[in-house]
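New to this. Please check this record:
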Amino acid sequence: MARASADSVLSLQDQRLVAALQCDGRVTAERAARILGLSAATVRRRLHALGADGTVRVVISPVARPRNGGSAGALFLRIRVLRGKLDTIVAALAAREDIPFIDVSTAGDEIFAVARTEPGSRDPLVFRQLPSTQAVTSLESATVLHVFRLTSEWRHDVLTAPEREALSPPDPSAGAPGSPGPYGIDTDPLEQSLIDALTPDARLPAAALAASTGHAETTVRRRIAQLAAQSRLITQVLVDPHRLGLPIEAKLMLHVAPDHLATAGQAMADHPSVHGAFATSGPSNLHAAAYFPDLAALYGFLSRDLIGLGITQVETAIVSRAVQRMPFRGAAVSERTR
């Protein structure tokens, strides 16, 4: 009974609250209630319940969108292993701090992972460690060249456009060269202490932050407001997509004609199902990841939504198990294990 409850789909009201947190991880109960047409007491109660049982966590995202969508300093890894050795390799990868994401496909011998690395470097994991592991039968790597959409930017499609706009804080870095942005301003020690305190729980109130960092509460409130206004406090909502009625996750490896790459990448980023889209090196020059309610929706995406984008080949892999999502550096968190 406990497992059935843990895997059950959230009510529409709770899903809308999750979507509100995706727009603004520190949104107040009063503001969310006003925009969503609920009472503040209901919002406070449901947000507390969702957080208390671990259904939803709001953390500071470790990755902000690079300026002009440039490289995120990451490699996509596709690792095939001997059957019977998959769990051993997965455990070894999960123990590494430079591997924030690990998925296992339904093939049963295939691992998809993301490795943080310096662009252009000879990463020891790729060049030495994995190739010398007897359990690894093949290894493909692709460098991220351009970011179209990050997971932290994905929004569950249960809000109206006006609701989403009203919940989202203004982005001063959008379309304004030289505007403050995640990579545009150095973080001073006070701000860094606040970010560190918020990293595992981005919804900590100002009073708790003041107590943990030793700064005056008025100072904390002012600096948090400043960080948010400058788009330097990027939050991410961790929630099992099964609970949102999205049990199918697909990895898409797309071959796109060069003159269509930017258009196809933006189309992926704009699609409500896609939670990650990246231009990469290699023959599959566009990688995407998407959530769907069922296989019929995935088929519709492949057969209808990709038409006219200059895509010449698509390879689709369905994720059977999301082993690791690392919302913050140095702490591996299992988002879901099935």
